[in-house]
Amino acid sequence: MALRPRRSTRPLGSRAVSTPRPSYEQLTTLPAYAQQPVPVAFEDVNGHLNVRHYTGIASEGLDESLVDLGIPQNWPALGHACFSAEHHLTYLAELRTGDLMSARVRLIGRSERAAHALVHLLDDTHQRLSYVMEEVFLHIDMTTRRTAPWPEDVAAALDRRIAEHAELPWEPDVSGCLGLR
């Protein structure tokens, strides 16, 4: 099921601009998260990674990437959380049992209470992009279970990472259907 990579479109002013997907080589310049082989238990009847696990592994990679920005795995115990608000999922090439995979995260932007990210799931065995999860996630105050402004230290760390990622030599392959408000 090696699907041909598509160009994504996104609105820019009144016209759509076509942005090619980053190459495997470009994506491997980003840190690897959630590195693992595809386990037998995640295989479906088609002999490849079951659809529900792509999102889970990408989400795990995003969570790991946020730890050094001040968002630890135990953040809810500290009164904060990140909740997913929206996703756009694109399947490009199948991952089969035993294939090595890794998640590469690019932060696109943030608002007072939300952040926008791309998570690219790589098939490291065949050196190709397998899956893209675009996500908008929210900062939640766990005492009220409502959105709240990012803590200042986390906001500053997010801003630094977003600025670093804006300097990457390729455009983000956003879907054009998600954004920050």
From TrEMBL:
Chain residue ranges for the region called Disordered: 1-22
Domain of life: Bacteria
Record protein name field: Thioesterase
InterPro entries assigned: HotDog_dom_sf
Taxonomic lineage from the root: Bacteria, Bacillati, Actinomycetota, Actinomycetes, Propionibacteriales
